[in-house]
User: What shape does this take?
Amino acid sequence: MSPTASLRESIIQHLRYSFGKDPEHAILEDWRMALSYAVRDRITDAWIGATGKTYDSGAKRVYYLSMEFLIGRLLEDGIVNLELVDEAKAVLEEFGKDYGTVLSDEPDAALGNGGLGRLAACFLESLSTIGCPAHGYGIRYEHGLFRQSFVDGRQVEQPEHWLEQRHAWEFERPEVRYRIGFGGHVDRRGETVRWYPAEVVEAEAFDTPVIGWKGRWANTLRLWSGRAIHPFDLDRFNHGDFAGAAQPEALARTISRVLYPDDTTEQGKELRLKQEYFLTAAALRDILRRFNNQFGDLRKLPAKVAIQLNDTHPAIAGPELIRVLHDERGLSFEESMEIARGCLSYTNHTLLPEALETWDETLFGRLLPRHIELIDQIDSTHAKQNPSRMNSMRADHQVKMGQLSFVMAHHVNGVSALHTELMKTTVFEELHTLHPDRIVNETNGVTPRRWLLACNPRLAGLITESIGEGWVDDLEQLKGLEPFIEDTGWLDRYAQVKRDNKAELSNWMGTTHGLHVDPEMLFDVQIKRLHEYKRQHLNILETIAHWAEIRDNPTADWTPRLKLFGGKAAPGYFFAKDIIRLINDAAAVINADPVTAPYLKIAFLPNYNVSLAERMIPAADLSEQISTAGKEASGTGNMKFALNGAPTVGTLDGANVEIREHVGAENFFLFGMTAEEVMERRKVEGHAWKAVQADPRLKRALDLIRDGRFSPGEPERYHGITANLEGADYFLVCSDFTDYWRAQREVDTAFKDTRAWAKMAALNTARSGWFSSDRTIRGYMADIWGAQSLL
Ligand code: 26Q
Assistant: This one.
């Protein structure tokens, strides 16, 4: 049977026997589910094969522990990796269904906040593509990241409910359940120590197979869901207390109810700590059960098990593993600590002091009374072994998760070269001096299957036609495009791809948001979580200054630009929410100005998520990566843009530095202070005010905002922002403004030369191969995990 015929049969079978429909009565969701099941069957075959091979080989396994997996939609990913795009399109077309419409019916699983969660998802896909035996462990949040809409320009949050629609990808594992305890007391009988928790909830496993390129391998994403041990209190029910009868179940379920929005003000919430322990304890129990079944001897654990901690969120893994080995299995404390360290490694994703996880010891001790004792013992053992050391993980009545993770890990990694160096000289300076070989760099990457092949079929098609399909799992082959770039015929086709992508995005914005824009404009895109260090306010200030300048001289030869924004602000981060509102207010005024209309438009697309990124990135001309140098650990959006042919306007921050090295300085619009200069400038008193006085354009933009030009009824609306910028300006928006303006005008000039611009864009694509997450994962396997590919 041809692949198309076989897929057709499979879809019809599932429509009929899984969903009880024939094609005549199937609704959109039935088609989406039937296609998903047909694809899932093929994934499952690969998955069961890979699981068997892993067991038979006795190979070391990798476990990626993360509070977030920002996986997005999975159907297209499955279809693309199995190379069934043409077949799926053909079958759906036979039944009068549109492929894109069916794909868009799938809810976007937003089980993460942003970069850290999306990185985990890219890593899972690369681990499968490479054939490294691995599991992701996370939480099956009932509600992912909130849904964002705008009311009068202001962000409004609604709960996200991705499981409300039918979801095709998970396998419930009722036989895989663990009891996870909280609170209670610690009991000592001579040598033996036992923790008796007061509250116990059950973690139940839900498995999602993660398929790699060409379906050669599949790994497992195992997400834990909270449930009560005794779900229903019959006694209370029989006494007429119907609400009370359901209470144990409701309480246990709150553990996996909702993802915490990345928000430092939310820190210290008891439920968050419960979630962290819930994930970690369940994962470790599962890992040890699997190890026991296959190998038994706990001393071999580090040879067979590599556990990666995605930031400090699962840092309780150190003490928990020691607790199991020492308290429950009877190994000595020292040996338990050695074994645990032999298994664990830790990735740091931020240097922002306010984002470093710490817990109040009272809260921590109440919830995890045995673990806090073990942490003290880890701390004193480490201090004994390293007498020169001063910095404790237990100062100021706090538990410092970064220090704990560092001490309990055999390797600690940063996520870009610059970030890794800064780790050594700032947060982990002391620990690095004690353990100079522990910190390593593994620069982030992104999966080219999702972020080029699937999201940008036009460009992927041109590339494959030019250099063959080997680039898909060997992205450095994109280098082979460089000779084509000299060929004007080829370059015109490259430029046409971008134009078509822009037209497609324009049409979509028109139909879904009523935003009509001219696809000939320069599409200038900043999409990422809202944060002061990411400096969306620098972007809008420059936009406002640009608007004023166009009005001064409307007949000049301006380069038409569309400023596109997307991103969510944490619900309690009021400054970030004000920036969103300012952008929307400025958009309302500027978009309505007939004088500047041909040259400048602004749009903030609501509810930025993985699916929206997949639409926007292929259509971008320019990538905004403008964080204060030293603050963005890596960035991964920056890589997606470069790969899809959008040159960067950016600072020397995070992975921008490496992107610029790879694509060439002449294909990157650099501006701003370096991380070192930033640290120096902060010491200059009145640096912001001086910068404002020195740049009339900046001054005018700030004046317009302060005088209520964009908030006519309420001029003081943005005085918080203007006062911050003219005062403390910790993120040096004012100090970097003038150079940012200069870089943007260079962009204007460069964009006018269509051919030269296309060449710059194409060189960004050709030279971005190094930013594949396949390369990153191979780095982790070799430098940190000691893991092998089984392919
Ligand atoms: C912590 C405590 C309580 C509640 C929430 C959190 C929390 C949640 C998410 C803290 C941080 C995060 C997310 C951090 C993050 O996404 N960092 C980004 O990681 C990317 C992958 O390495 C980098 O590319 C980005 O530079 C970095 O900002």
